[in-house]
């Protein structure tokens, strides 16, 4: 029973870490989209060095 309890505890901790990761991921996503909402259409379409071109093209391109 002791080993079984430890395994359950480790699984629970692992699940909590995954949940925290997804919460953080959604927070960063929301912050990024809020920042993008402040940009003009021209800024969103402007060619960039990173990504695959413009910010909008990077958002909607599929690799």
UniProtKB/TrEMBL annotation:
Keywords: Metal-binding. Gene3D superfamilies: dinb family like domain. It comes from the Bacteria. InterPro entries: DinB (IPR007837), DinB/YfiT-like (IPR034660). Belongs to the DinB family. This is Damage-inducible protein DinB.
